[in-house]
Amino acid sequence: MSRPLNYFRTRSKIQPIDVNTYLEKLGLTVEEPTLNFLRKIHRAHLFNIPFENLDIHYNNRIELNVNTLYDKIIRQNRGGFCYELNTLVFHLLGNLGYRCYLVSAQVYQEGSWSPEFDHMALIVGAEKEKWLVDVGFGEHFHEPKRMVLRQSQLDYTTYYKFEYDIDRNVILKKSDDNSTFSNVYRFRMQPRELIEFIPRCNFHQESLDSHFKHHKIISQQQKNGRITLTDRKLKIQIAGETSESQISNEDEFLAKLEQHFGISPQDLIRTK
Hints:
- It is a single chain.
- The radius of gyration is 18 Å and the shape is globular.
- It folds into two domains: 5-196, Arylamine N-acetyltransferase fold (2-Layer Sandwich), CATH 3.30.2140; 215-268, no CATH class.
- Strands 2, 3, 4, 5, 6, 7, 8, 9 and 10 form a nine-stranded antiparallel sheet that branches. Strands 1-11-12-13-14 form a five-stranded antiparallel sheet.
- It has helices at 19-26, 35-48, 54-57, 66-75, 82-95, 198-206, 250-261; strands at 51-52, 99-109, 112-113, 119-126, 129-133, 145-146, 153-155, 158-164, 170-175, 182-187, 217-222, 225-230, 233-238, 241-246.
- It is α+β, with helices and mostly antiparallel strands.
């Protein structure tokens, strides 16, 4: 797992974006590309930008175009799913001077691995080490994870570690007790181009076989918990306490969406 940092030579082209406005959205200002700043960005992304799949359900085509994603997420105060959020943070980090590249991950679901390019994550260089960055996996780790084998890394109340499988894939595992670990996803330390993710991104917004087509979801980390809204229920986790209420119809869903996430029905209408 320990290739030299010059392995960052192959990566998608970093496109210029308005870094200051992006960081203002995150409540941050420009700093040197250190590990400490990387951690700040990772946490701030989770606290300020929701994970959501609403465009899939309101017939808004998702294009992996950096300018389009920037307009939607930063200017229009929306969220997105992994391909959108991690594409955007990849370009933010690149513009800030971090060496980084995209990786293709396969998610572990019901005893098997999903197809290649089913999830997008990043490998980022900071302080002569590599770090896994992922701001697009819903309820997931809050800070980047150091790419080192078989070493547990505590993230709030959850432990994470990396292992190899027999095919030399890197497997991210998690545990509540630092004893019994379960698979999260696996990937290779191989830089990928953004264009390679487009077919799988299209699958998730077009195919009824995609779990993203089954239910609407929007979820965001809070300072002391998390709020998650689906077309079935609203779940609020605050200070260790959880409350749930049922969503009975579209009007109620839209009302809760605006109340808790500041997204109005008009915000779901594509204007471009």
